[in-house]
Amino acid sequence: MSKDAEAAEPTGFAALRDRLRRIYHGTTPLAFRFRLATMVVDIAIIAFFIATPVLQETPTFLWLDYAVAALVAADMTARLLASTDMPRLMRQPTFLVDFFILLTLLFPTALANLGFLRILRLWSLSRSGALWRHLEMRRLKVWRDASQAVVNLLTFLLVVAGFVYTFFFRDGSGFAGYVDALYFTVATVTTTGFGDIVLPGIAGKLTAIVTMIIGISLFVRLAQSVFRPNKVFFPCPQCGLQRHEPDAVHCKACGYLLNIPDDND
């Protein structure tokens, strides 16, 4: 290697950032394996969040909580270092959600009543560009809209179930209380309304009303994603419109001439 090449190689902190960019945003087999591993870890973290109402009374809960906090903090730090625009990344909703989740993990006692919001990590993961790069394959990317709609609905169900459990079923109810909260949420969202579990007082009625309104909207969104014609994701270089017809020649928003790759090639 020549002296000029050695001088061009980043060293120290710059080398660390360059390596993180390669594994977080690159297309090499190593980058693919790394992002696949982080996705598995994220799914395990989400499973921990779902099980938190049951685990929080166990003696090992704090150890697990702080271990997850360390993982979330490490991932957020690595993503910041891998970013070419840190201030912009820190303003993104997904990063703000992760920061809030980190606070609830670092202060599990003080923020115990907000712990149910940790499940928003599932929404954050579904919006991750790194996740969808794994699925940018033939026959899979067409399910992006439907998959995100399913994740949105699932996130809403779990967040509401956590809220109901925290404020209506928590006292000494354990796993059975969480199941009751989830059962009430699903029955309310689907407007089945069996009536065997009803939240008490005005607060309970308002909770049921909000759950039904938002839940029906998410069901409609899911139906639209499944049954409407498929579109491709290709940002228009001029106006930034993301979704286009598969055979589109011009952007329907600004008329810019598009060059959408053909998956059949």
Automatic annotation (TrEMBL):
Record InterPro entries: K_chnl_dom, K_chnl_volt-dep_EAG/ELK/ERG, VG_K_chnl
Organismal lineage: Bacteria, Pseudomonadati, Pseudomonadota, Alphaproteobacteria, Hyphomicrobiales
Keywords: Ion channel, Ion transport, Membrane, Transmembrane, Transmembrane helix, Transport
BP GO terms, sorted: monoatomic ion transmembrane transport
Residue ranges of the TM segments: 30-51, 94-117, 149-169, 206-223
Record has Ion transport as a keyword: yes
SUPFAM superfamilies assigned: Voltage-gated potassium channels
Protein name: Potassium channel family protein
Domain of life from the UniProt record: Bacteria
Gene3D superfamilies: 1.10.287.70
Topology versus the membrane: Multi-pass membrane protein
Compartments, as annotated in UniProt: Membrane
Domain Potassium channel: 155-226
